[in-house]
């Protein structure tokens, strides 16, 4: 019986390690694409905005829901967009249920008096959540192109001039820009989030787009061709990441996406771990939901290459890597005992080298993305090493939380779209205390996260009697990661 259990554990452990390794190889291929693309001189047809006949009509959509702390900043910033007023419409898609509605209405009224075409659009219910709001606004949108900004984004005044020009190419359905971070250095939590997002917005988006593989509109800081949205079947609210869903449906219908790494759109990162939890849960569950919804369409598509299919499947499986990492983590301690009791399994532990190799590959890939934004000096490299292992540890600490989200997504369990609370945090002296949108209850996952912290402390201890120190660094990072998530959650009322 014990041998059978050992075989089952080793099979799951090995499969999870191999999936992580394949994911890292996909990232390495994206790095090659990224570096090659950076060296090429990119030319593309563009609208001549000096010619009034070529200036397209644009609708800016601002989907908001209970954004008391940032709505004033949002509207003031959007009002500064440099674009002919006769060719610009702004829709404030306000699903709010609190007192912010009155403040928003007053500010919109004041902006209307300046001659700005801005409308306050309210719905009777939140059906379809953000996707529903965008779809509702699209029904009456005047623009041929639809720019979308979440409430915490602050596009520069010339943002439209830098993006809408690329739609002269009739095949382009979306232009997406890179996210920036106005509060990157606020805390360890914000630095880690910025680090992970920077990797996505450089390595992944550029690496995929460079070779014509599928990328995704990131829900904000991008602009759609209205015809593309309608041709792809319009917004649907049956997943928590409606942006990824519509992106894949559009690209399966041969629409091209244009990614602009050099156009940065600043935004605010969650500063409290409860807010980061809700965002991570939505993104990871939505990724798994979209895998269920779209993977067969990608695999069976006749109009895309085998390599594009591979990267599409790996893209849709991104969030599922957390489940693989969690399984490897949990099973790493039993495997130490199996190695001790059943010598015939010694060969299986060569599979562990795949995890080490995967980590090295990711370390190299993320360095190139880090230095493209932060610089490549020796001091920056030292900072990168510290940040990479901090990020790696905390990502491990989030693996339980995110694995639950992934499992819910794969099983088809429906849940409400939970928005990420905004704070209007711009620098280290600003405080999030008293934010009324914060979750008041402690996350039930905290008990398990504390137990896992103790579990991996035990994993570090048993290395001594077993005289097996190969997994000690891994267990140390797991101990730190789950400890960070637990104590941050406890002190921040997660």
Chart the SSEs and their pairings.
Blueprint: H1 2-38, E1 58-64, H2 71-78, E2 88-94, H3 100-112, E3 118-122, H4 129-140, E4 145-148, H5 159-163, E5 172-181, H6 188-210, E6 222-225, H7 226-231, H8 242-252, E7 256-267, H9 273-300, H10 306-316, H11 321-341, H12 352-374, H13 378-397, H14 399-411, H15 445-466, H16 472-491
Parallel strand pairs: 1-2, 1-4, 2-3, 5-7
Antiparallel strand pairs: 4-6, 5-6
Helix pairs in contact: 1-6, 1-11, 1-12, 6-12, 6-13, 8-9, 9-10, 9-14, 11-14, 11-15, 12-13, 13-16, 15-16
Descriptive notes:
This protein has 494 residues and is α/β, with parallel strands linked by helices. It folds into two domains: 2-36 and 319-491, no CATH class; 46-271, Alpha-Beta Complex (Spore Coat Polysaccharide Biosynthesis Protein SpsA, Chain A), CATH 3.90.550.10. The chain contains 16 helices and seven strands. The protein has helices at 2-38, 71-78, 100-112, 129-140, 159-163, 188-210, 226-231, 242-252, 273-300, 306-316, 321-341, 352-374, 378-397, 399-411, 445-466, 472-491, and strands spanning 58-64, 88-94, 118-122, 145-148, 172-181, 222-225, 256-267. It has a seven-stranded mixed β-sheet, sandwiched between helices.
Write a concise synopsis of the structure shown.
The protein is α/β, with parallel strands linked by helices. It is 55% helix and 10% strand. Strands 3-2-1-4-6-5-7 form a 7-stranded mixed sheet, with helices on both faces.
Q: What oligomeric arrangement do these chains adopt?
A: single chain
What's the helical proportion of residues? Answer: 55-70%
Distance between the termini: 42 Å
Number of domains: 2
């Amino acid at each position: 019986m014990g041998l059978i259990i050992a075989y089952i554990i080793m099979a799951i452990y090995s499969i999870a390690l191999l999936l992580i390794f394949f994911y890292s190889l996909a990232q390495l291929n994206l790095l090659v694409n990224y570096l090659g693309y950076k060296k090429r001189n990119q030319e593309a047809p563009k609208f001549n905005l000096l010619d009034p006949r070529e200036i397209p009509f644009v609708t800016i959509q601002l989907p908001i829901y209970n954004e008391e702390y940032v709505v004033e900043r949002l509207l003031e910033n959007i009002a500064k967009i440099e674009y002919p007023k006769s060719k610009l419409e702004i829709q404030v898609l306000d699903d709010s249920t609190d007192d912010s509605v009155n403040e928003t209405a007053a500010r919109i009224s004041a902006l209307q008096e300046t001659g700005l075409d801005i409308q306050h659009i309210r719905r009777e219910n939140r059906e379809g959540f953000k996707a529903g709001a965008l779809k509702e606004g699209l029904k009456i949108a005047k623009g041929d192109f639809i720019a979308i900004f979440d409430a915490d984004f602050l596009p520069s005044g010339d943002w439209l001039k830098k993006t809408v020009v690329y739609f002269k190419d009739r095949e382009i359905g979306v232009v997406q820009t890179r996210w920036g971070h106005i509060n990157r250095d606020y805390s360890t939590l914000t630095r880690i989030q910025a680090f992970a997002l920077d990797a996505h917005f450089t390595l992944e988006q550029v690496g995929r787009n460079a070779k014509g593989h599928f990328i995704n509109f990131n829900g904000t800081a991008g602009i759609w061709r209205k015809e593309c949205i309608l041709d792809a079947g319009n917004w649907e609210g049956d997943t928590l990441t409606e942006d990824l869903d519509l992106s894949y449906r559009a690209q399966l219908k041969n629409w091209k996406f244009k990614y602009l790494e050099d156009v940065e759109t600043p935004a605010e990162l969650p500063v409290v771990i409860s807010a980061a939890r809700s965002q991570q849960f939505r993104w990871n569950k939505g990724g798994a939901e979209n895998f269920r919804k779209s993977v067969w369409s990608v695999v069976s598509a006749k109009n895309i290459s085998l390599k594009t299919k591979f990267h599409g499947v790996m893209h849709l499986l991104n969030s599922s890597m957390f489940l693989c990492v969690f399984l490897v983590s949990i099973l790493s301690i039993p495997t130490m005992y199996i190695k001790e009791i059943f010598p015939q399994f010694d060969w299986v532990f060569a599979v562990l080298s795949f995890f080490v190799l995967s980590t090295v590959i990711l370390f190299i890939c993320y360095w190139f993305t880090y230095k493209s934004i932060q610089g490549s000096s020796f001091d920056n490299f030292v900072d990168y090493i510290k940040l990479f292992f901090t990020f790696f540890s905390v990502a491990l600490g989030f693996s339980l939380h995110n694995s639950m989200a992934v499992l819910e997504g794969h099983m088809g369990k429906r849940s409400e779209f939970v928005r990420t609370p905004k704070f209007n945090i711009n620098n280290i002296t600003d405080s999030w205390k008293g934010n009324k949108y914060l979750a008041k209850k402690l996350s039930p996952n905290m008990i398990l996260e504390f137990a896992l912290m103790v579990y991996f402390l035990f994993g570090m201890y048993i290395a001594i009697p077993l005289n097996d120190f190969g997994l000690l660094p891994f267990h140390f990072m797991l101990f730190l990661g789950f400890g960070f998530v637990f104590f941050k959650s406890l002190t921040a009322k997660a």
